[in-house]
Amino acid sequence: MIAALAATGLLGAGWWLAAGSATPEPAPTTIAMAAPAVAPPGSAPAPAAGLGPRRVRDPAELAAQRALWQQRLQRAREVRDAYAAATRYPPESRPAAEHGDQLHPGRPVQETMPLRMPGAPARDGFQLRTSQDRIYLQGDEAVRLSVAAVDDAGQPLPLAVTRAIAHEAAQGQQRASRYGQVDVSFRDDGQNGDTQAGDGELTLRWQPATQGFAELDGLIRIELSLQSGEQAGYAYFDVIYTPAAPATWLPGAREAVQDGSLNLLLKLQVQQAGRYVISGRVDDANGKPFALVGFNDTLAAGTRELALPVFGKLLRDGQPAFPLTLRDVTGFLLHEDRFPDRALLAAREGKVYTTRAHVLAEFSSAEWQSEERSRYLTEYDKDVAQAEAQLRQLSEPATVAGP
User: What are the boundaries of the region Disordered (predicted)?
Assistant: First the structure.
C-alpha cells in the first residue's frame, strides 16, 4: 500500500536526504536564556555591573531567580549532553538498535484494513490482510503480493479477486501512459508464489520486466476488486520499478583498519555517475544485529571501491563478538529533483563478507568530529556558560549602598 511505500522507501532516517552533504546532522535546539523576571513595583532596580554597590534584594525573589536559572542550567546541560551523545558516531555508522525497521529489508510489508469499497463505510466482521515483500524492483526482480479476508476475530473468510490489473500510475503532471493495463491473476493453488493451496490467502508473484513494463521507470499500481460473501472491497499495491541498474556490484570484498575504524570495502562498476546511497547490515559472531553502515557520496563512472565503516568508538562501546558479518547490502543512485527519486542497484542479499577476528584495542575510542558538530557543541556550551554565570551572580552576597 502507498502508506507502506512511504514508510519503507526512506531507509529511515533519513540521513541520505541531505544529498548535498556527506555528513548531515540534526539542527541544534536553542535554549532560550531570558533575563530574570522584572522586579515588582516599588522595589529598587539592580544597578548594572561595575556601577556601584548593589542593594539588598528580597530573599524570596533571589530564591525564585536561582531556581529559575538552575532549571535553565539543567536543561542546557541535558540538551548539550544529548546532542553530544547522539553524534558521537558518524551518520554512516550507527548502532543497529537505532534502525530496527531497516535491519531486514527483505521482510514483507503487512497491513490490516477494513474490507470495503472506496468511500464506503466500514462494515463489522470484514477485514482485509495484505502482504508485499518489496516496494522497489529493479531489472528482472519480482514482487510477491497476497490478500486474505478475515473476520474481527482473525478467522479466515472466503475471498475472491473478481478483477486485478496492473498499470502505470500517474505522478505529478498528467500525461498519457505508453503502457496499457495488464490483467494479473491472484491464486490460492500453491503455485506462482502461493505458499499453501486452499488456505484462503490469494497470492501473485509478479515480474514487471516480463509483463510489458520492461522499459518503464516509475510507479506501477496493481488494483484489485474483491468479494467476500455479499461484501465487496477494493485494494491496491504500488511498486516502484527501475529497468536498468546505474551500477553493478563486482565480486569480492575486503576489510581494512583505517583511522581507528573497521572499513568494509566493496567494488562497483559505475555506469552512471552521481550520488550513491548504500546501506549494509552488520551482525556479530552470534548473529545479533550490531550496526547499520552506509555510504553517501558521489561516484564517477568506472570501477570504484567504497567503504562501509564500522566506527571505532562504536566497536569499543558495543564490544561485539568477532568475527562480524556484513549482509543484505542495498543501494541506489539518488535523483534529487524527479520521481522516482532513485535508480536501484541489485540487492546483495544474505551474507556478503565475514571479517577476521579483531581485538578492540585495534580501534579508536575517540568520538566522531566534524565542523558542524563542533559548531553546534560550541553554541550549546555558550548556553551552559550563560546559565552558570547567572547563577554565580545571583549567589554573590549583596551589599547595602552607603549614604
Answer: 87-107
